[in-house]
Automatic annotation (TrEMBL), chain A:
One of its GO terms (cellular component) is plasma membrane. The keyword Glycoprotein does not apply. InterPro entries: ABC_transp_permease. Its main location: membrane. This is Xylose transport system permease protein XylH. Part of the binding-protein-dependent transport system for D-xylose. Probably responsible for the translocation of the substrate across the membrane. It is found in: Cell membrane. One of its GO terms (molecular function) is transmembrane transporter activity. Keywords: Cell inner membrane, Cell membrane, Membrane, Sugar transport, Transmembrane, Transmembrane helix, Transport. It is a multi-pass membrane protein. The chain crosses the membrane at residues 25-45, 57-77, 82-100, 106-124, 136-155, 175-199, 211-234, 240-258, 289-310, 322-338, 345-364, 370-389. It holds the Pfam family BPD_transp_2.
UniProtKB/TrEMBL annotation, chain B:
This is D-xylose transport system ATP-binding protein. It comes from Nonomuraea jiangxiensis. GO terms for molecular function: ATP binding; ATP hydrolysis activity. The keyword tRNA processing does not apply. InterPro entries: AAA+_ATPase (IPR003593), ABC_carbohydrate_import_ATPase (IPR050107), ABC_transporter-like_ATP-bd (IPR003439), P-loop_NTPase (IPR027417). Keywords: ATP-binding, Nucleotide-binding. Residues 2-238 form the ABC transporter domain. It holds the Pfam family ABC_tran. PANTHER family: CARBOHYDRATE TRANSPORT ATP-BINDING PROTEIN MG119-RELATED, SUGAR ABC TRANSPORTER ATP-BINDING PROTEIN.
Length: 395, 242
């Protein structure tokens, strides 16, 4: 008798407007921002939208974007990881020392460095959960301490170069030829479409409301067009960089884990209401520790990607503004600082915004003082939009 | 079915409960009333396994049981909905209903099975929520209370304890929740409701148990009792003293 009250109605344009009014903006403001940025820099400098520059942009965003993914893992719990930059640098140094100085196999060196990052994350997580130290302080100590350890390990020299044609450097100098790149895109879209079709069948079999076809088609088709555009543009230069593929795979994998596994569900639950999660029998301590471990491992991997691009590690590895840009990217992409809201795609969108601004300003020969101020304005704007949306949605 | 006798609990010098008796039967709604500090919350916490009493016995179907932890209570089929509801506002209704007891296979969530079962459960309780996949933050107070109560039914309990279920609700939403409590009774559950609102108590309960200063201060069949008699028992002014 009341079954129709539970049915999800068709997603009409009217409802879409209502959602926007409620503050459920999703990724649209950021996507709109990206279009504006592309238009502005594209008109100011004809080189900005060239395949060569966009390829460079793709290379530049992978490392910081990966670190930003890790930041999102702790932001989802309403915590913060200030040590991500230092950990990324330290991890890169550990890998380089094992690989270059100790002549280890590069894959083993990367694996050990990532395990080291995991141990650091475990330490942070245990200090936060067992000793009840605020994550801000734990990771602030990490920010300073791991930077110190990095300097200590580097010693007097201060710089270690990676062999240019070695495995690690090749990571950022490998390009997907045209056909494998198209194959990858086709496989991704086909896989998604298949999952959508099967999902619809299962929902219909279970007599559950099914989202309208045009919405699903629009979403998958839109992504297909977007990916095709990316591959076309990048193939016009050197090809799709492996670095971008690695970063993209991490984003997609983490998003699937967060949305479709018990671990992901519990991450959102702990971030949304830790007390409710605890009473529901969820081991919140374990979830928190795991989040810190994930954050540090992702930071470490980002550090290795950065070292690969530079073909060296030095005293500035993981330093300067990397951490701040990673946090800013996560927030600009739509991750809430209060926990429980945000998706891994935020790292991709946010870092695209930040890196586009940086890249465009450098092309225009704008001083980095102006660049910082513009980035700050974008960050403030993004958080302002988020806060207003939050207030609108809780009203 | 559930029977507690001689329950005693002291916090230091404060005697919170002093030999309290409480019987709960399947298919019956019992309202637990009393002034502030009468021991209502303490008694509920004893049944929910949050605290252990200093003395007293609890029997289920005539067999004595020990409720030392919330898990013990859960295993005996006691499900408690606290006043703060303990919902994750960022998660949708389905996720909240199954929080901590997600259906899964190799840790991959069974979205469709959970949504189907959630849909059926809410329909059987006549809970009206237009879209059960929106975050709980978007729901009204009455809908949230309904979700919290529905969630208490996921583990197939025998006794559901509700702490002030109508305290924060408006008139229409209160009516919704009272209707929901009726349907819990129809399902053959034992229901224990703490309430301050005597109008609601009269509307929903079969029996009223009054506590005063940690002791039993009266027990009434709701249908045969006037509100004045209940108030008198709560305040300690018995009819013949007046």
């Amino acid at each position: 008798m009341n079954a129709e009250t539970l049915t999800r109605g068709p997603y009409t344009p009217k409802e879409a407007v209502a959602r926007l009014r409620r503050g459920d903006l999703g990724a649209w403001p950021v996507a709109g921002g990206l279009v504006v940025i592309a238009a502005v820099f594209g008109t100011l400098n004809e080189h900005f939208l060239s395949p060569e520059n966009l390829t460079n942009l793709a290379l530049q965003l992978a490392a910081t974007g990966t670190i930003s993914l890790g930041i999102i893992m702790v932001l989802l719990l309403g915590e913060i990881d200030l040590s991500a930059g230092s950990v990324s640098g330290l991890c890169a140094v550990v890998m380089t020392i094992l690989y270059v100085k100790q002549s280890w196999n590069p894959v083993a060196a990367i694996a050990v460095a990532l395990v080291a990052a995991g141990v650091i994350g475990l330490l942070h997580g245990l200090m936060h959960t067992r000793l009840h130290m605020p994550s801000f302080i734990v990771t602030l100590a990490g920010l300073i301490g791991w930077q110190g350890l990095l300097l200590y390990l580097l010693g007097q020299g201060g710089t270690i170069n990676l062999p240019f044609d070695g495995f690690v450097s090749k990571l950022s100098d490998t390009w997907l030829p045209v056909w494998p790149a198209w194959g990858l895109v086709t496989a991704l879209i086909a896989g998604w479409a298949a999952a959508a079709v099967i999902g619809r069948r299962l929902r219909r079999a279970a007599d559950l409301p099914v989202p309208p076809v045009y919405l699903t088609v629009l979403r998958i088709g839109g992504t297909a067009v977007l990916l095709a555009g990316v591959v076309t543009v990048l193939s016009a230069d050197r090809g799709v960089p492996l670095l971008l593929v690695l970063f993209g795979a991490l984003v997609v994998a983490l998003d699937l884990v967060l949305r479709h596994t018990v671990f992901g569900r519990w991450m959102y639950a702990v971030g949304g209401n830790a007390e409710a999660a605890r009473r529901a029998g969820i081991n919140t301590t374990r979830i928190r520790v795991l989040a810190f471990v994930l954050a540090s491992v992702l930071a470490g991997f980002g550090g290795i990607l950065a070292a690969s691009r530079l073909s060296a590690v030095n005293q500035a590895s993981g330093g300067s503004d990397i951490l701040l840009m990673a946090v800013a990217a996560a927030v600009i992409g739509g991750t809430s600082l209060f926990g429980g809201r945000g998706r891994p795609y935020a790292a991709l969108l946010g870092i695209l915004v930040i890196q586009s601004i940086t890249n465009g300003m450098l092309l225009l020969n704008v001083d980095s003082s102006v660049r910082f101020m513009v980035t700050a304005a974008v960050l403030a704007l993004a958080v302002a939009i988020d806060s207003v949306a939050r207030r609108a949605s809780t009203r | 079915m559930f029977s507690a006798t001689g329950i005693t609990k002291a916090y230091g010098a404060v005697q919170a409960l002093d030999g309290v008796r409480l019987d709960l039967r399947a298919g019956e709604v019992v309202a637990l009333v009393g002034d502030n500090g009468a021991g209502k919350s303490t008694l509920v916490k004893v049944l929910a396994g949050v605290i252990t009493p200093d003395a007293g016995t609890i029997t289920v179907e005539g067999r004595p049981v020990r409720i030392a932890t919330p898990q013990d209570a859960q295993a005996l089929g006691v499900s408690t909905v606290y006043q703060d509801l303990a919902l994750c506002e960022n998660l949708d209704v389905v996720a909240n209903l199954y929080l901590g007891t997600e259906r899964r296979r190799w840790s991959v969530l069974g979205h469709i099975a959970m949504e189907r079962a959630a849909h059926d459960l809410l329909t059987s309780l006549d809970v009206r929520i237009r879209d059960i996949r929106v975050p709980v933050a978007m729901l009204s107070g009455g809908q949230r209370q309904s979700v919290a109560i529905a969630r208490a039914l996921i583990g197939e309990p025998r006794l559901v304890i509700l702490d002030e279920p109508t305290a924060a609700l408006g008139v229409e939403q209160t009516a919704q929740v009272l209707g929901l409590i009726d349907r819990l009774r129809d399902r053959g559950l034992a229901v224990l409701v703490i309430s301050h609102n005597l109008a609601d108590v009269r509307a929903m309960s079969d029996r009223v148990v009054v506590l005063r200063l940690g002791r039993n201060a009266g027990e009434f069949r709701t249908a045969e009792t006037s509100q004045e008699a209940i108030v008198a028992a709560i305040t300690g002014a018995t009819a013949d003293e007046r």
